[in-house]
Amino acid sequence: MVLAALLPLIVLVAVQVPLLPGALVLVGYGVLVLAATITMMYLGYARYEDPSVHQVPPRMGRRWFRRRASPRSRAFPALPVDPCVTLLVAVRDEEEGIEQCVRTMVGSDYPNLEVIVIDDASTDGTADVLRRLSAELNFTVIYKTVNRGKKHALTDGVSIASGQVLAFTDSDCVLASDALARCVHALVTNPDFGAVSGHARALNADETVLTRAQDTWYDGQFRVAKAAEATFGSVSCVSGPLAVFRRDAIVNYLPAWANDTFLGREFRFATDRQLTGYVLGQVWKGQELKRQYADSPLVADHNHPERLWRVGYVRSAHVWTTVPAKFRPFLKQQIRWKKSFIRNLCFTGTFMWRRGLGAAILFYGHALFVMVAPLMAVRHLIWAPMNGLFVLTALYLCGVLTKGFAWAIAFKISNPGTSRWRYRPLMSLLGSVLLSWLLPYSMATIRRGTWARGAE
């Protein structure tokens, strides 16, 4: 079905490209995009297995792990059947939405659960809402008087957490009652999993055209992109709406995460990619990071061995997050994400090639497409019209929309009975025509940082 959806683009390229200058570049880029789309959808639909249902063997083979793992990193101690889980959220100025979030956290049907909420010096009525809820519900609140950012807030929460499993969510999210239990079961069933991501969708999907488009994009990024990475045990981003870690896989690296610097300044964005990178790359980066923060109680109290963990994705663990309904907050969010992408590429990109061919191709291939996208936009949307090559511009836009329709088909397959698939090509068009330009801007302003997430 994907090939059928892409067939018009293939025909157009075959007929028109030889007549255009720079045909080799266009053909090469087009072939790579087609191959990447088809490969990811094949992996996501044909090869992915939900780790909460049964044990998932490493796709790259156990011999690969044994050859590259030290004796200390080969052993993966099993978790108990019902490990203690600490579910944490950091919040700042979320007076309107925090009650719904906290109620779904406390309402999780996992039995052995501890919930911790950290109020990072809110200036509105958030603290009052939390005081009222804490008198009714069973959870712990930490009230901070000085705002230091989300990463510091969560790290402070972990310092009093007792869970063998640490789970994080965002303050604008709503969890399915069984979502946490499914993620924990995935870790218990697969002892070599250090972390898993849930499956996020838009909570306010029906609010505007923009939120409908984002909902379809979220579904594809999880159902296809994360599922493809999960087939190699190397999901590159355990996303904030529901990120679940084994304590021994991440706790020693939280001080490094909270105090992360980039280009000589504190990097305040609470990047989920960077946190995931500490699980993926601790065999190669872990000892150095722990030495830097050896005095931190999170390192000194229990120094866990560096292990070659797998990182997975649990499709059946559903969580809904509030997405930007207006264009300006949407652009701000995209800029934050691109800054996090740039920072993490300089960390995870230094070792991802060690995790096997499949994981490396997906990671570096994605990075290549993100970095090349602004150049392709300039070439096809500015240079080509200025030189009278309108056919080249038309081909580019046709290719973007055709790829968008392929993703729309994937959404339709995963979500039968909904007509929201029609908005997916719009997201592809936004990504190529507008959002790709944000990468150079994000690079130029990457030293600026802020806590606020803002989806209004």
Description:
This protein is of the alpha/beta class and 456 residues long. It has two domains: 2-47 and 360-444, no CATH class; 62-355, Spore Coat Polysaccharide Biosynthesis Protein SpsA, Chain A. The protein is 52% helix and 12% strand. The protein contains 19 helices and ten strands. Helix 12 (272-280) crosses helix 13 (282-292). The longest helix is centred in the C-terminal third of the chain and has 30 residues, at 357-386. The model is unreliable at 451-456 (pLDDT under 50).
Helix content: 40-55%
CATH architecture of the largest domain: Alpha-Beta Complex
Number of helices: 19
CATH class of the largest domain: Alpha Beta
How many separate domains make up the residues? 2
Low-confidence stretches: 451-456
CATH superfamily of the largest domain: Spore Coat Polysaccharide Biosynthesis Protein SpsA, Chain A
* Alpha-carbon Rg, integer: 22 Å
Structural class: alpha/beta
Largest sheet: 8 strands, mixed
Q: What is the residue-mean pLDDT, rounded to a whole number?
A: 89
Distance between the termini: 37 Å
The H/E string reads: HHHHEHEHEHEEHEHEHHEEHHHEHHHHH
What percent of residues are in strands? 5-15%
Strand order of the largest sheet: 3-2-1-4-7-6-10-5
- Count the E strands: 10
Question: How is the CATH topology of the largest domain named?
Answer: Spore Coat Polysaccharide Biosynthesis Protein SpsA, Chain A
Name the quaternary structure.
single chain
- Outline, from the CA principal axes? globular
